[in-house]
Write a structure and sequence with these properties.
Elements: H1 12-32, H2 39-46, H3 50-56, H4 60-78, H5 88-108, H6 114-139, H7 145-165, H8 172-187
Helix pairs in contact: 1-2, 4-5, 4-6, 5-7, 5-8, 6-7, 7-8
Length: 194
């Protein structure tokens, strides 16, 4: 879980092996496309055996899912948004983080099948929902925390995706300034004083 249950600390060797597998996976899907990538391709590039792969991941879909989840978690934690409460500035920073993450993911994985975009959407929206629900519960809302977080996470992800698909997108900071009021209206919150 993003905001309330941090990932358990991993043994450095386990972490390094996972990173090797994730890096090999991303490099291989850029070359071959997701559908053509096999576990053998990943393990060969990472320099590990298949048993090691299966000790960490169920299959390539599980690896993709966990890579996306971890990547977005790191983006949020880097900006310490998981340790914050709701303010318009924090919502703006979260909006920028989502836009940049979605754009970066789409750029790194150009040519990947549409199902990839769907997996990114699922992972990002789930984590957004959790974080926003936490903010709402801390601040209080005129609406159900679950309902408000659902509306805001869909709005935020959808607007970020639209920005990445625009032929001439606005600078991310300007775009965030434009859409944050739309997202905030879904939360039905008053800003928490600093």
């Amino acid at each position: 879980m993003l905001s309330t249950h941090p990932e358990p600390k991993l043994d450095p060797r386990v972490k390094r092996t996972r990173e090797l597998l994730e890096d090999a996976f991303m490099q291989t899907i850029k070359e071959k496309g997701f559908q053509a990538v096999s576990v053998q391709d990943i393990t060969q590039r990472a320099g590990v055996n298949r048993a090691t792969f299966y000790a960490h991941f169920e299959d390539k879909y599980d690896l993709l899912d966990k890579s996306i989840r971890q990547g977005f978690r790191q983006e949020v934690e880097k900006r310490t948004l998981n340790a914050c409460h709701f303010t318009m500035d924090n919502l703006r920073n979260l909006t920028i983080a989502v836009c940049e993450f979605v754009a970066d993911t789409n750029t790194r994985c150009k040519g990947v099948q549409p199902q990839f975009e769907s997996l990114v959407e699922t992972q990002v929206r789930e984590q957004l929902h959790e974080l926003l629900q936490n903010w709402i519960e801390q601040a209080g809302s005129r609406a159900s925390a679950k309902t408000a977080a659902t509306a805001a996470s869909w709005a935020l992800y959808g607007l970020a995706l639209q920005w990445t698909h625009d032929k001439k997108p606005l600078p991310v900071e300007r775009y965030a300034d434009e859409i944050v009021p739309l997202i905030a209206s879904n939360l039905q919150l008053e800003e928490v004083p600093a």
